[in-house]
Design brief:
The chain is mainly alpha-helical. The protein has helices at residues 2-6, 15-25, 34-46, 52-77, 79-85, 89-104, 107-112, 119-130, 135-163, 168-200.
C-alpha cells in the first residue's frame, strides 16, 4: 500500500510541479488531498528521494497561488457567484463563519483557517468578495500562512520518515495521524469558543441580549 501511494510523489523531477499543482488546486477545489501529498513528499525527503526545501517551496508556492486565485474569483465574480458554486448547507455555514471572522480577526484568521477543514476555501473566497481585507494585506498574511503550512506538512512526513527509517509506511501513518489530530483539535477549539460566545450572549431564558 505504501509503495503504491508513494508512486504519486516519486523521486522524479515532476514531483515538485505535482506538489505545486495539487496544493494550488486544493484552494478552490478542496477535495484534492494536498496535505496528504505534501506529507508523503516529506516522508520521501527523509530518505533522500526528494529535496526537503524543494518540497516546502513547492507546497507553499502552490498554496499561495491557489489562495490568490480564490481571492480573485471572490473579488471579480462576486459573492452571488461564489455561493452558487458552493450551495451546500455546510458551505453556507462556512462562508457565514468566514465573513464574521474576517471582520473580527483579519490577518490572524488567514493563517488559522488553513488548519480548519474547509476553512481555507471559505476564508480566501470571502476575503475577495467582502472586501474586508485589501489584497496588499491579504498577500502578506497568505504568504505567512502558506510558508507555515508547507513547512508543517512537509516536516510531519520528514520527521515520521526519520523516526521509522526501516518502515517508512509507519512514518507516513504517523504524519497523517498528527495532521488529523491537529485539524480535529483546531475545529474543537473553534466550536468551543463559538459555543461560549453564544452562551454569554443569551439570557437565562435563551433569548439574545
Amino acid at each position: 500500500m505504501f509503495s503504491q501511494f508513494t508512486e504519486w510523489v516519486s523521486g522524479a523531477w515532476w514531483s515538485y510541479p505535482l506538489i505545486f499543482a495539487v496544493s494550488m488546486i486544493d484552494a478552490f477545489f478542496p477535495v484534492v488531498p494536498s496535505e496528504s501529498v505534501v506529507i508523503t513528499a516529506g516522508n520521501l525527503a527523509s530518505s533522500g528521494d526528494l529535496w526537503l526545501l524543494g518540497v516546502i517551496a513547492a507546497a507553499a508556492g502552490g498554496a499561495i497561488v491557489g489562495d490568490n486565485i480564490s481571492y480573485a474569483i471572490g473579488k471579480y465574480a462576486g459573492e452571488h457567484t461564489v455561493k452558487r458554486l458552493f450551495r451546500s448547507d455546510k458551505a453556507r455555514r462556512g462562508f457565514e463563519w468566514a465573513e464574521e471572522q474576517l471582520e473580527r480577526r483579519g490577518f490572524y484568521i488567514i493563517v488559522i483557517a488553513r488548519f480548519i477543514p474547509g476553512g481555507r476555501t471559505a476564508v480566501t473566497f470571502s476575503s475577495g468578495y467582502t472586501h474586508a481585507m485589501p489584497w496588499r494585506r491579504f498577500i502578506v498574511a497568505d504568504v505567512c500562512a502558506g510558508l507555515i503550512w508547507g513547512t508543517y506538512a512537509a516536516m510531519l512526513g520528514y520527521i515520521g520518515g526519520k523516526t521509522f527509517e526501516d518502515q517508512p509506511w509507519k512514518g507516513l501513518f504517523l504524519g497523517f495521524l498528527i495532521a488529523i489530530g491537529v485539524a480535529v483539535g483546531v475545529e474543537a477549539i473553534r466550536w468551543y469558543i463559538g459555543k461560549r460566545r453564544s452562551t454569554r450572549g443569551a439570557t437565562p431564558d435563551g433569548d439574545a441580549t
